[in-house]
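ENTRY TYPE: protein
WANTED: fold as tokens:
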Amino acid sequence: MSATEKLQQHPAFQQAQNKASYYLSQLDKELSKYPVLVSFEQRTQVPKSYAFLGGVIFLATLHAINALASPTSNLVGWALPAYLSVKALESPGHQDDVQWLTYWVVFGFFNFLEAIALRVVLYYLPWYFVFKTLFILWLQLPAFRGAQTLYGTVVRPVFVNVHQKAVSSPAETTVTADNLRDRIATATAD
């Protein structure tokens, strides 16, 4: 019996192989929710879980090469959201419009702050672009709704504060957070 065969029959190896198969099947089940990936699998005959894992490994490799980390991070923050924004504009409902408009406001606010402090951040946090990519994914993935969370807790209060200071006359309508929320709800209902 060869060393490879002995390794494959070892209980620890078999347990690891069973765990890997279980997690791969769970990933495949989760990825089946996305018609684009199902279509990709049918056209290419490459299992969608393998293609997804390959894409993750590819992005991780690009992040490991320092010169490609920033463009890769920006591509993740731009490519899929741009496609889904156009798709949302073409759809009849308005809920997806709000999702992506909120994403772009938060993404733009974040990029503005990043432009001011990037050198300092890179000095203290060498793997910054990996964290930025994970942050961007948190912002855009519907399971987390990170953009809406940050908009409600950071961007909107700053906007309301600046807008209230810009209102010169007390006779004019002051914009409160509730008033702004009502205006946004009215605009999205139209």
Summary: The chain has a mean pLDDT of 84. The chain has nine helices and no strands. Residues 28-64 form one domain. The CA atoms of residues 152 and 177 lie 9 Å apart.
